[in-house]
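dude i think i finally got it to work??
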Amino acid sequence: MINDKVKEILNEQINKEFYSAYLYLSMGAYLSDVGLYGFSKWMEIQAREEIDHGMILFNYILKRKAKVELKSLGGPELSFNGVEDIFNKAYEHERSITSAIDCIAGLTENECDLATRNFIDWYLKEQIEEEDNVLRIISKIKAFGSDKASLYLLDKELGNREYSQSDYE
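look at this
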């Protein structure tokens, strides 16, 4: 069984993961509206991965015989100022998620919950990948500047992303 402090922070993280999905869907809708369908697809797949991350936490809490407590999700940001703005905001969001995961790791150590500490290692590694993926896209966007042909090629590249269900086990 998980103690109350660890259960609470894990339930909060479920909320953050599902909010992440909402945010990425909002970003994807904006990108689709401006005709960047490859960028939009990338964000939609990112949203699906965030739902997976939330469900992994959900199932972990249940396996540990603790109570899942879903909370209301706030609405995501709806207005953006272009592709670079979106990916900068995505990067800042991923950094906030990394910080939240770091706090979970710290709390599980303080509470001597080594099973959850071991479980959360997967998320720590995942966040390194998440931040790196977004930073690589930002680097390309900055390198291309306002060159529309390059933006078109990047849109095409990102549109090739395939969904692969995130699985902890």
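The chain has a mean pLDDT of 95.
im so relieved honestly
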